[in-house]
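Supplementary notes for students who missed Thursday's class. We covered one full example, reproduced here. Read the sequence, then the structure, then the short commentary at the end.
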Amino acid sequence: MAKVRKNKRANYWEVDYNDAFGKRKVKGGFSTKVKAEDFLATAMTDVRNGTSVDINRDITFREAADLYMRLYVEVHCKPTTVYGYRGYLDKHILPYFGDMKLIQITPTAIREFIYQKLQTNLANSSINKFKKLISAIYNKMIDDEMVVKNPVARIKSLKEIKTKDVRSLSIKEVQALLSKTKQVYPDFSPLIFTALYTGMRQGELLALTWDSINWQTNKIVVDKNYTHGRLGSTKTDRTRYVDMSAQLVKVLKEWKLACPHSSHGLVFPNSEGEYTDANNMIKRRFKPALERAGISAIRFHDLRHTYASLLLAKNISMKYIQHQLGHTTIKTTMDIYTHLLPEVSEQCVLALDCLVELKDEPIKMFGT
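Structure (token representation):
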């Protein structure tokens, strides 16, 4: 409860109140009661407006974003997350908010930012990611008592239309890609073969080492990831064991004899035995291989979708596919791939007709 009182010992007036963070503040030295009341009124207005922390009035959004990235994201998050956040900030958020003070950015300013981004035809999902990052920066600044309010807090996210445009190769396209790659890029063929026969992510393949392959059990231990020049854990921070087919075992055993020596023990190193640069691999091997095979452009990640779709075509269970792909929950697998089974609903309807055997008799109405 805010108070104004006379300090009889010091013979001045003082104010006693709680700041925006709930901390008690006592300030004295006022010669009259009126002056103390004027100060308290201003202080309480600042508390309500979220501007009561004097030492942080001048901090800009750019400075806050830098603190958030250095002291939180780079310490606790994966390299891919750091890389993605840096891109959001440098390309979209900082050019708009960078030089503004944190306390100057209002909900209206956030809405204007969202509106302007919509005019550039960016996907709603991308704009929602920008909004989420801005909100995270504010929340961390609130935790560190640099600001009081988050201007993003009550702003709704844009509706996202979930697309089912999962691009996967047909069996003929897979055969063409494998055949042409083996013919033109024999040093790249084993990597493509492994991607198509395991569904492993690009970073998991580039980080794969020979000691992670168990030739007795025909399983691959997937426990690391190489992306943006850094070695780290898998996307889900979990280790999984991926089954190898007899064909894949044969391909990898042959490749081990021809593979460039790597001090890291890499299965798919570059010609110097070091980690393969993903961008270089895509540009110099993957895209040319697609062109040679007469296949329209796809992402490397679509090889993972191809693996899943080929298993589904053979009526392999979703649970097994989830395990092979390393999804944390089966819901993730279902959300991505259920639409690849359009015949399921038809089969269910047919099954209903078989539950009860009905005689071919005319339907009688009540009272007849």
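Commentary. The radius of gyration is 31 Å. The CA atoms of residues 155 and 234 lie 33 Å apart. If anything here is unclear, bring it to office hours.
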